[in-house]
TrEMBL record:
This is Triosephosphate isomerase. It is found in: Cytoplasm. It catalyses: D-glyceraldehyde 3-phosphate = dihydroxyacetone phosphate. Belongs to the triosephosphate isomerase family. The keyword Protein biosynthesis does not apply. The active site is at H90 (electrophile), E158 (proton acceptor). It comes from Desulfurella amilsii.
Length: 238
């Protein structure tokens, strides 16, 4: 599975153009694809992706269904515009917006209640890796974030130091972390962090990489397509 995370990019015209380009380039892809777009553009993108294999996702939600929560968007709302996936606990939300594991857990439960498939992001900072704390950090996140949750949640391993930095994690680093996560929960584990057309084949060749969560390179349909094609080639689904 390959997921685009557009983050806070594109105006309305740009988003629809990017969605249309992805549809043109990738409507015959064999792997599962999802585009997690800014909420404003979801409804129009749903129309664009309808009758294709490209699914729609959001980048965040609030855990209550509705109420006096100015500026927030709920799982119920996302579902009503055709979302099937939602990213939860991205490190940018944890670091910039102060989301803690308790909030992430509530968000995951709300997504599941409304039949959205959550993509839970976990990962360590550079200093945590340098202090050999990677596995302790991941275990702490997984235990707290997934408390009381048995339903299927997709996990994205996103080392914070690799996000948007051009510093991609090494295959052996990814392999051992994905192995650790899969011992904790039997589910798909995606890798995220500077995945691009140049490194996609190498990263895809890591046996327990089940896909990617792609930020920057997903803004360009050609680059996104190259990542998808490399993944299909490495996994023998081309
Ligand atoms: O959600 C995506 C990740 O944060 C990776 O972003 P990036 O591909 O721009 O490094």
């Amino acid at each position: 599975m390959i997921v685009a995370n557009w983050k806070m990019h594109f105006d309305a015209k740009g988003a629809i153009e990017a969605g249309c380009s992805i549809k043109t380039e990738l409507s015959s892809a064999k792997v599962e694809l999802a585009v997690c777009a800014p909420c404003l553009y979801l409804k129009e993108l749903f129309e664009c992706f309808k009758d294709t294999n490209i699914k729609l996702g959001a980048q965040n939600l609030y855990f209550e269904d509705e109420g006096a929560y100015t500026g927030e968007i709920s799982a119920m709302m996302l579902k009503s515009v055709g979302c099937e996936y939602v990213i939860i606990g991205h490190s940018e939300r944890r670091q910039i917006f102060g989301e803690d594991d308790e909030l992430v857990n509530k968000k995951l439960k709300s997504a599941i209640k409304h039949l959205l498939v959550p993509i839970l992001c976990v990962g360590e900072s550079l200093s945590q890796r340098q202090n050999n704390e990677t596995f302790a950090v991941l275990e702490n996140q997984l235990v707290k974030d997934l408390q009381g949750i048995k339903e299927s949640v997709i996990i994205a391993y996103e080392p914070i130091w690799a996000i948007g930095s051009g510093k991609v994690a090494q295959p052996d680093q990814i392999f051992e972390v994905h192995e650790f996560i899969k011992k904790f929960i039997d589910t798909k584990v995606l890798y995220g962090g500077s995945a691009n057309p140049q490194n996609a084949l190498t990263l895809s060749s890591v046996a327990n990489v089940d896909g990617f969560l792609v930020g920057g390179a997903s803004l360009d349909a050609q680059k996104f397509k190259e990542i998808v094609l490399s993944f299909e080639k490495a996994k023998g689904v081309a």
